Amino acid sequence: MTIAEANEFRALCDRAGIAVTHQRQVIYQVLSGMHGHPSPEEVYGRVKVRIPAISLATVYKNIHVFIESGIFCTVSLHHGSLRVETNHSPHHHLVCTGCRSITDIAAGDLGLPVKAHKLRGGFLAQRYAVDVLGLCPECQKSVS
Amino acid sequence: MTIAEANEFRALCDRAGIAVTHQRQVIYQVLSGMHGHPSPEEVYGRVKVRIPAISLATVYKNIHVFIESGIFCTVSLHHGSLRVETNHSPHHHLVCTGCRSITDIAAGDLGLPVKAHKLRGGFLAQRYAVDVLGLCPECQKSVS
DNA sequence: TTGACAAACGATAATAATTATCGTTTACTA
DNA sequence: TAGTAAACGATAATTATTATCGTTTGTCAA
């Protein structure tokens, strides 16, 4: 890593109010160099090459730190466990990033296609699922 | 349950090619009577009132059977484990219901709001995450 | 610099969610 | 109504994640 990169990471940590550690920096660099949607286990595998003694728990902890600091996002903010959709009418979800609650909203006014159709690239789109991420009224109170 | 309801469920199972069992019917009825996004554990709790001897595994198995048959959906079709978003540019996801792969698409042409704003109901919308559910080119081959 | 203190680390136990196994029971078809 | 595959219940196993705890390491003020 260059001096510039190191300084950039230091500034990032300052802003987030977290300490600059070797492990944290390597996890950050590995994440930045990956594309797609890696799992903690995959990140661990790559970090281990550079820091063989690192613990999986450290990788998990730092990924969460990065997410809380807004440095990275998660792909899905839904509940971690299986949930069944009991609302059969077309609708989307308000997902609260504070309390992780999920509320339904009618699909009607979003104007997305309802029929299956092919996208450029050959993907057959069957259904659009929109998550509106934000804060529910309750969580807005606790933030302010 | 009424005779009509029983017949309706029987027809449903016929179409799905699955056997009609007492447990399956009660799980179906309980699911149909719940709103929101219940977890298997919650479904189990309610089913147990009517069939005290039922096993949690049976609830899991039947929820999966219902999902595979298209009788119910899952709230999220993403990987069950934590995934980190490494693509920092605004984009959405093509989620394949066959192989569960997630591919990025640029957000540009979806025309959804980018700025945070309040929705009726008081929810503060900060970001839209759109999943386009469907089949990737590979999985379209295996289906046909 | 250095010394105190909080933050972070590594190892690993614990927990939660889910799936697999397997012997028994039950529904479906001939 | 008998044979067979599917479904069931009990429970072990697995996977993903989090908590605990003793040790080490940054950070910040003196």
Description:
Two copies of one chain form a homodimer. Chain A is α+β, with helices and mostly antiparallel strands and 144 residues long. The first copy, chain A, has two domains: 3-68, Arc Repressor Mutant, subunit A; 91-143, Dna Ligase, domain 1, CATH 3.30.1490. The first copy, chain A, has five helices and six strands, in the order H-H-H-H-E-E-E-E-E-E-H. Chain A has helices spanning 3-16, 22-33, 40-50, 56-68, 137-143; strands at residues 73-74, 84-85, 91-96, 102-106, 117-118, 124-135. A four-stranded mixed beta sheet of chain A has the order 4-3-6-5. In chain A, helix 2 (22-33) crosses helix 3 (40-50) and helix 2 packs across helix 4 (56-68). Chain A is globular and about 55 Å long. The mean pLDDT of chain A is 87. Strand 1 (73-74) of chain A pairs antiparallel with strand 2 (84-85) of chain B, so a sheet runs across the interface. The first copy, chain A, binds a DNA duplex (30 and 30 nucleotides) through residues 18-24, 39-41, 53-58, 60-62, 80-82.
Structural class of chain A: alpha+beta
Query: Tally the helices of chain A: what do you get?
Result: 5
pLDDT averaged residue by residue of chain A: 87
Question: What would you say the CATH architecture of the largest domain in chain A is?
Answer: Orthogonal Bundle
**According to CATH, what is the class of the largest domain in chain A?**
Mainly Alpha
Q: Which topology of the largest domain in chain A does CATH recognise?
A: Arc Repressor Mutant, subunit A
Biggest sheet strand order of chain A reads: 4-3-6-5
Strand content of chain A: 15-25%
Number of strands of chain A: 6
Largest interface, Cβ cutoff 8 Å: A-B, 59 and 59 residues
Helix amount of chain A: 25-40%
Q: What's the multimeric state?
A: homodimer
- Looking at the structure, what is the overall shape of chain A? globular
> Low-confidence parts of chain A, pLDDT < 50 over ≥5 residues?
none
Instruction: State the major sheet of chain A.
Output: 4 strands, mixed
User: By CATH's scheme, which homologous superfamily of the largest domain in chain A applies?
Assistant: Winged helix-like DNA-binding domain superfamily/Winged helix DNA-binding domain
Rg over alpha carbons of chain A: 19 Å
